[in-house]
Amino acid sequence: MERLNQLLKSERGEYELIKSIDIDTPIHWLKTVSAFANGTGGSIYFGVDDEHSKLTGIEYQSSIINLMRDLISTHIKPAFLSYDIEPINIDGAVIVLLKIYSGMDTQYLYYDDKTQTPFYRLRGCSTPVTKNVLNELKLKWDPKSHETQSFGIKFSDCNFKLFESTYKDRTGIDIDPEKDYELFGMSRDGDITFLGALFADDDLVKQSRIICKRYSGNNNTYTLSTQEKYKCEGNIIKLFKAGMYFLKIYTTVCNYIVNDKDVKFFDFERVALEESLVNALVHRDYSNVENEIRIYSYYNRFEFISPGGMVAGKSIKTTPINSIESARRNPLLCDLMTRMGFMKNRGSGLLEIHNASTDENRPIFNSTRQEFIVKLKALHYYVDLHRRGHCCSISTGRSNIFDD
């Protein structure tokens, strides 16, 4: 058992324990092969009881490996799937380890006489993909395709005054309509693309919206007044401005005294607020037309919730913050926002959010298949102010950390 425990502890991704190898009804384990290939890979241990992680072993014959290979090639399509199978002897019992690597094709399906079904991992189980997940799997093959698809509207019928003025203000360069819009991927064959629609003044992309809510306590059981709810949709630059306005209003400022001097104490660094908002805007899943970005202000934190987890189903919980690979769901949008200075170096956003805090109020990152969540902790709530000096007052309102 010690060897088995070592193997399981060494797994950096997902794994599944299966008591026996079902040759007659292989969908019970082949669906997990499909799910791991469609995600970030994973391992299946045959001969281990899932309920108690108990070593049971299998009746091993050398032919079993070939049978498994035949079943994988017959039922998993496309056939270019990378995996390894090996028998392992542990305390006189034989288990079989099947390691599946993340696939490079758009989707890996389980085939039988009646169905052709792609699977993915959801809460530790292999589940048939939904429409939104299927759209994301397609992005693994060509991540730019959805951004440059025609939006079905003539480019000449759209206005871009906010985009053009913002681009000029932030870069010092005027937009050249003859070449820049096509170069950026905002127009194609005379039509506006999905990317272009995100920046149009006409508010074309209805799922591009943001909802902000303020709660007076540390959870959402406290009632809200209508003045503490904000909703904005359409142009992504307008969403950024609306989000920053909300963050300015509900940023907490503390006044305290150190050595008889008044000192202001801010809950959040501006870079953490901006990066959290931009991260939600540029990395959200725009194929999810039902949900929007949500920003919640509580007494002790801000929460940013955006549709779509990490690309390819990775989990932020299992990834060290300083080793996150830069995988962009919307690469052209990211490139354009970088040109305008809304983003910095590729892959640096979450690290900047982390570094803009102290050990006492480190941010919390969480992700599921459906959402990515950033929680910024209010420094005044998590820090003993008496160690810093005598706290005179705590107030909310626009502070000079937002002044340009």
β content, as a range? 25-35%
The CATH topology name of the largest domain reads Heat Shock Protein 90
Number of domain modules? 3
pLDDT < 50 runs, ≥5 residues: none
- Which CATH class of the largest domain is shown? Alpha Beta
* Second CATH tier, the architecture of the largest domain: 2-Layer Sandwich
Please, what is the average pLDDT?
83
The outline comes out as: globular
How would you portray this structure in words?
This protein is of the alpha+beta class. It folds into three domains: about 130 residues, Methyltransferase, Cobalt-precorrin-4 Transmethylase, Domain 2; about 50 residues, no CATH class; about 190 residues, 2-Layer Sandwich (Heat Shock Protein 90). About 30% of the residues lie in helices and about 25% in strands. It has 13 helices and 22 strands. The strands form six sheets. It has a six-stranded mixed sheet with strand order 15-14-18-19-21-20. Strands 1-2-7-6 form a four-stranded mixed sheet. A hairpin with a 2-residue loop joins strand 12 and strand 13. The chain is globular, with a radius of gyration of 25 Å. It starts with a helix and ends in an 8-residue tail after the last strand. About 35% of the residues are buried. The mean pLDDT is about 85.
